[in-house]
Write a structure and sequence with these properties.
By secondary structure, this protein is an all-alpha fold. It is built from 21 helices and no strands. Helix 13 packs antiparallel against helix 14.
């Protein structure tokens, strides 16, 4: 009789557990968290996770497939407006993570926070807590990146912890590491370091400029220009950024926008030799040769003994009938500009030939 009663009690208990709905389990789990009953909260959230297991598996599978689609496939899928994150599916994992963390089960808590973020990548509370777990493990860089991400989305706790953990100092360390790799011409590795610096500190002016320079070296000009735009938002009217962005526009054959940037530079710094040289290049790209010659004139005004501007003005003047191109090539050669010397010699030979023809004509 006693055995039968025990069995009946067990069956009733199991039926009660199975009968609990997901909202009830979440409500109970949160109540137990609030009352510091962390073991009880862990049990409730575990039940909620088990109840939702099949749905979560299907959801994550669908998310992975969507992430691998190209633009056309996405437009013709059953999610034409993009993947809609299901925040509710992440809640049990976050709740259990909090219960586990408060029982000092940090590795298990970290796994649950990671699962919550994989379900809803915009779940700032989970991102923040994951960052805390990373820092506790000694992975301060990863932890600070999470805190920065959550902070950027308005999470006040993350903002406070980001500053408290001096995460900006780690950002500077990544910039320094990137500089070494850039100097070694390992642009891909340098890019990763500068990218990490930006993830840690979204207001890092230097990191944006240097990541942009990596993108230029990797011939990713559109990305470089975007980074220069971001740098200008941090420090508007910075001559260096206008000049560098102008170089990127020139490299991308976008001569009109390059011209505008170099015009900004020479307006603010009328004696900027390199800006005139580069703006002249933009003008030539737009086939505005008179404007290019004007800029080479300005460059020569600033550096009257520099052969490069004479040489380039000579090239732009080659179609002129006044022999000015030859004069420029000879001036450039006289100042030691090597590329001008063969053209200068050619001009001398042409002059000799013309004189000879004139003599024979007489």
């Amino acid at each position: 009789m006693k055995k039968s009663l025990l069995t009946l009690t067990l069956v009733i208990t199991i039926l009660y557990i199975n009968a609990q709905s997901l909202p009830e389990l979440l409500k109970n789990g949160n109540a137990k968290l609030a009352s510091s009953n962390f073991k009880g909260a862990e049990e409730d959230f575990s039940k909620a996770i088990k109840l939702n297991d099949a749905v979560v598996t299907s959801y994550l599978d669908k998310m992975e497939k969507y992430s691998k689609m190209n633009d056309y496939q996405k437009s013709t899928s059953d999610m034409p407006d993009g993947f809609i994150y299901n925040h509710d599916l992440a809640l049990p994992y976050y709740g259990r993570g909090m219960a586990l963390e408060n029982q000092s089960k940090n590795e298990e808590a970290l796994a649950d926070y990671e699962k919550a973020v994989s379900i809803d990548p915009k779940y700032t509370e989970a991102i923040c807590q994951r960052g805390i777990m990373y820092i506790a493990k000694g992975q301060k860089d990863k932890g600070c990146m999470d805190l920065q991400k959550a902070k950027k989305q308005g999470n006040e706790k993350a903002k406070s912890l980001f500053d408290k953990n001096t995460c900006s100092d780690i950002s500077s360390a990544y910039v320094f590491s990137g500089d070494k790799k850039f100097a070694e011409k390992d642009y891909k590795a340098a890019y990763e370091d500068y990218n990490a610096a930006i993830l840690l500190n979204g207001e890092s002016f230097d990191a944006y400029i240097k990541r942009a320079q990596c993108n230029v070296q990797l011939k990713k000009y559109a990305k470089a220009i975007t980074d220069y735009d971001k740098a200008l938002k941090i420090k508007p009217d910075t001559l260096q950024v206008f000049f560098l962005r102008g170089l990127a526009y020139n490299a991308a054959d976008n001569y009109g926008l390059a011209f505008n940037d170099f015009t900004t530079v020479v307006r603010l710094d009328p004696n900027n030799y390199e800006a005139y040289i580069q703006r002249a290049y933009s003008c030539e790209g737009m086939q505005k040769y008179k404007s290019a010659i004007y800029d080479y004139n300005q460059a020569i005004r600033i550096k009257p003994t520099d052969g490069a501007a004479y040489y380039k003005r000579g090239l732009a003047n080659q179609d002129a009938s006044d022999n000015s191109a030859c004069k420029d090539f000879m001036m450039a050669a006289s100042f030691g500009f090597e590329e001008a010397k063969p053209l200068a010699e050619g001009c001398k030979q042409e002059q000799k030939d013309n004189q000879k023809q004139q003599m024979q004509g007489k």
